[in-house]
Amino acid sequence: MSRTGKTVRWLALSVLSVVLFLSLPSCVVPFDSGDQLSTADLEARIFKLVNDHRLNIGRTILVWNDAMADEERSHSQAIANSQVPVGHQGFEDRIAQIKKIIPWSVIAENVASA
Question: Pick from 11, 24, 81, 88: most CB atoms within 10 A?
Fold first, then answer.
């Protein structure tokens, strides 16, 4: 290929790259604040997914409990606000509060971070 051919090819690829780059914003789906879930809706969806999974692996479903949800929601909020690190800090205190309301024999906590 001649030097002129290489220059034309490079120029064409450059123009194509710019056109593709400038068209990227049209490929983005705008965020619609109406798509936001409330905390309660999100919790309900996650709880359903957990129970669906439990059924699929032959386990019994979990039963929702508002007192336990309130206690764990407070812990999640403390993590989100950087008041406590992601983890099980304060687990004994949380389960002591829950035991005042719900008799239990075994209790566990799952914590995850992205």
Answer: 88
